[in-house]
Amino acid sequence: MRFARSLVVAVAATMAVAGCHGSEPGVPDGSSGGPDAGAGKGVIVPWETTPAAFPGNVTDDGEITVSSVSLAIDTFEAIGDAGTGSNTRATLALAWGADGTTPDAAALPTAPPGLYSKLTIHVDGDLIADSYDITGTAKVNGTVFPYHIHDRDDLSISIYLDGPVEMRTLAAGSALTIPIAIDFARALRSIHYDDLDVDNGVLDLDTNDSQMSDFRDQFSDAFYTPH
């Protein structure tokens, strides 16, 4: 294990951002987003995760856990045969936290009727903030360390919808629910924690770490539709 220079790493349990539980769901550009702005209509995307609760075990033996996750989604888009535009696109900030914080479903209340074939997610903090931030603990050589994963590079994710046509079709005046599952456990198990730098007692995986490229690939593959 390499011991880097001492650096205070802020490990946030949660991130107070729009789109968290109890806040207003993400809405497309140009929408008022008020309580009557197409509530219960359009494309609705609830989020499912592995583990289901935070903090939670990533491995059965509890040697790797996850406490909090936040993602800055610059563009979330539903793509269908009716084309794309502001009514099929939204900006979201998602967070799961140790205090029970979970994101509301993403909502595109004015999405046009039609057959939808793909969801795309562009995670990007625009170099102002981290694109995503993950915290938890990992046991290394018998000692439990907190870890901090944070990346300023962007992440592009495409999720193709290949279920029955009726499960991908939005009828006029109705709602189409398409859940997205994120297997955080799969991505977190791919890290060699014993090779990470230790900054002020925290295992640190950042943008410039040699493992980050592989972790991005694993993380982007962790998004899928469960049904």
Tell me, rounded to a whole number, the average pLDDT.
85
> What percent of residues are in strands?
35-45%
Q: Quick one: overall form?
A: elongated
Helix percent band: under 10%
Number of helices: 2
| C-alpha Rg (nearest Å) | 18 Å
Beta strand count: 16
H and E order: EEEEEEEEEEEEEHEEHE
Largest sheet: 10 strands, mixed
Q: Helix/strand-derived class?
A: mainly beta
Spatial separation of the terminal alpha carbons: 41 Å
User: Could you list the spans in which at least 5 consecutive residues all have pLDDT below 50?
Assistant: 1-38
Short summary:
The protein has about 230 residues and is mainly beta. Helices cover about 5% and strands about 40% of the residues. A hairpin with an 8-residue loop joins strand 4 (about 65-80) and strand 5 (about 90-95).
